[in-house]
Amino acid sequence: xxxxIPIETSARHIHVSKEDFEKLFGPGRELTFKKxxxxxxxxxxxxxxxxxxxxxxxxxxxxxGPFRNETQVELSLTDTRYTGIEGVIRQSGHTKGTPGCELIxxxxxxxxxxxxxxxxxxxxxxxxxxLQMGVRDNDNVCxxxxxxxxxxxxxxxxxxxxxxxxxxxxxxxxxxxxFSGDDNPYGxxxxxxxNRSYDMTMWMDELEQGIYR
Length: 213
Hints:
By secondary structure, the protein is α/β, with parallel strands linked by helices. The chain has helices at 18-25, 77-83, 127-133, 173-179, 200-208; strands spanning 5-10, 13-17, 33-36, 43-52, 57-68, 72-74, 89-90, 102-104, 109-111, 116-119, 122-125, 140-146, 153-161, 168-172, 186-190. It contains five helices and 15 strands. It is globular and about 55 Å long.
């Protein structure tokens, strides 16, 4: 059975720890709720920060709640080039060895020595949906998009499975601009090579070696 997966665009944003938030907005301050997001328990807060890199600055970058254990800044590759921050593609939460930046708030500022990532495109789904689609947590899959005159296939889309997730594929603004012409774009997982998910980088390496499947 093929599942239509809604595709949502994730613009630049920040996740903050409670400790860092108080340094930026003052002791005892809490995130204020502004808008519920598609994933259960996630929300857009009323607070924002300035993100400063070696060459450029973004003002009023949204903070998403709730608090996390570690502060993380998510930018697109275009954003990293503008700010002069190295663009490192990672899954959310995998921040070891990533670049940092300066964050400036109403009360103070902090300098991160790591935590800036370009989020790897991914699909949120429940365990039941993963069974029905024949994929597992952390699988890399290909997704073909349905959109006005700009359909394409995204490779190396990581599957993320959790009981609390709602089915959705998340891409950044660069990726969305490459294909999306519809208000409600969607995609479907494409299985290659005997109906298996496949690592596209491995496939390219094999093609360069003259190996054809």
